[in-house]
């Protein structure tokens, strides 16, 4: 169950990062509320996952899902630049996530 909670926390991290971008510096009410609610939910799920998963594993995977997910959303939804260096960086993050999962005793 901890891995499911961790994955959900990572997805919510993507949502709050995107809604924070859309909030225009917390000046638009709806995206601001979405940011705050999903941020709290993401932290709560991460906290539950950390009850059984090692800190380093849980935090690395949570931030990795958020970072790569935000990168993908930035490209697909916001039209951000796709460059070889950015793609390599995202692949390195994914590689680290996979290796961290494989190295986890849980």
UniProtKB/TrEMBL annotation:
Transmembrane annotation, as ranges: 33-50, 57-79, 85-103
Chief location bin: membrane
Subcellular location field: Cell membrane
Keywords, ordered alphabetically: Cell membrane, Membrane, Transmembrane, Transmembrane helix, Transport
Membrane topology category: Multi-pass membrane protein
GO BP term, example: xenobiotic detoxification by transmembrane export across the plasma membrane
InterPro entries noted in UniProt: EmrE-like (IPR037185), Small_drug/metabolite_transptr (IPR000390), Small_multidrug_res (IPR045324)
GO cellular component: plasma membrane
SUPFAM superfamilies: Multidrug resistance efflux transporter EmrE
MF annotations from Gene Ontology: transmembrane transporter activity
Gene3D superfamilies with a match to the protein in the record: 1.10.3730.20
Listed Pfam families: Multi_Drug_Res
Family affiliation: Belongs to the drug/metabolite transporter (DMT) superfamily. Small multidrug resistance (SMR) (TC 2.A.7.1) family. Gdx/SugE subfamily.
Name of this chain's protein: Guanidinium exporter
């Amino acid at each position: 169950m901890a891995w499911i909670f961790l994955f959900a926390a990572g997805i919510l991290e993507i949502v709050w990062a995107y809604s924070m971008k859309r909030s225009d510096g917390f000046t638009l009410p709806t995206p601001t509320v979405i940011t705050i609610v999903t941020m709290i939910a993401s932290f709560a799920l991460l906290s539950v996952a950390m009850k059984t998963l090692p800190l380093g594993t849980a935090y690395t995977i949570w931030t990795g899902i958020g970072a790569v997910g935000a990168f993908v959303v930035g490209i697909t939804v916001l039209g951000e630049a796709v460059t070889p260096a950015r793609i390599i960086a995202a692949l390195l993050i994914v590689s680290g996530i996979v290796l961290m999962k494989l190295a986890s005793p849980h």
